[in-house]
Amino acid sequence: MKETGISSLEFSLGRVRAKKAKLISPQKMTEIAQTDTVSEAIEMLKDTEYSENISKDEDYFDVDRELSNHLLEEENNIAKYSPEILKKVFREYMNRWDVQNLKVALRAIKEKDHEYREFLIKTDSELYKLIDDIAESENYKEAAEKLKDTEYEFLVPILQEIDEEHDGLIEPEVLLDLKLYENIMDKVTRSDTRVKKYFEKHNQNIEKYFGLLVDRVNVETVLRSIRDEMEPEEVEEFLINPYQIDMDTLLTMAEYDELGNAVLELKDTYFETLAELHDCDCPEVIEEASIKLDKLQKKTAMEIYRDEPLGPGVILGYLALKRIEIQNLRKIFTYKNAGIGYEDIKEVLVL
Q1: Any coiled-coil ranges, and where (predicted)?
Q2: Of these four, 207, 273, 289, 291, which has the most CB atoms within 10 Å of its CB?
Q3: Is the pLDDT of residue 199 over 60?
Q4: Tally of domains in the chain
């Protein structure tokens, strides 16, 4: 009989629980945020697992890159000792690093930015081998040619039609997210019979974890479309098949001219906390919504982790908590590098 990897789940969960115990506590994170300089904040990490890769002599960009590299390495390790049955989903999820790098490369073309490498995260993918060639393209049409015969070939017709002087990158960036999460959900819901039986047993938390990520992407896509004054009828093609928020709600939101009015449509949904932003100014809604969504994601992660002590919810919950921890550290270092104090930093942390 072919090994499914399910028998190794107990061993995997033990390792994940041990890792969760090493997460930085809210009190420790607050103490890091209260330091005066980047060097002092780095010193506070000496008793954590980040100390091996981050030194006091590094500048902000090195620290930020190392934190992203740490998350990538952690996710790779989790995927390696997760049950074989889950690895197909994780492989798709890990493609988001390619998506992030491709977004960096496309922005480098638009902004003629030759320092884009500071924002890349090195992976072993085939796309990463092409990233420099893409980023150094003279225009989007040239970049499109380099994406032919890759899994991102679906961007070619869009990049060939972009007006570089007037068009933004919202269309290709949103389409990248759409394809990423469609592929993830496809692996969750359309697996072979053997895998599907396993997913049915643990379906609630697996679908909740990835489904709410899809809903978050949809909500953020609609909010960005309003900010960028897209026509409502253009938005639907960039939305992924939703999980809990119905498509009609998303399309109704897209019809508003003001972000504050749009978020009121989220009352009585899982994302109703965003309705509290109805009085915010336009730029603030986008920023505040991101913070509220991060807090909601942490709440969901804890629910999933606790709800299924002997299932994949432990793994998925830990991954979300680890990602939020690194987001907190990146915010702290970003703000400190800009000379911003603790009172402002604490407003953006998810503790």
Answers
A1: none
A2: 289
A3: no
A4: 1
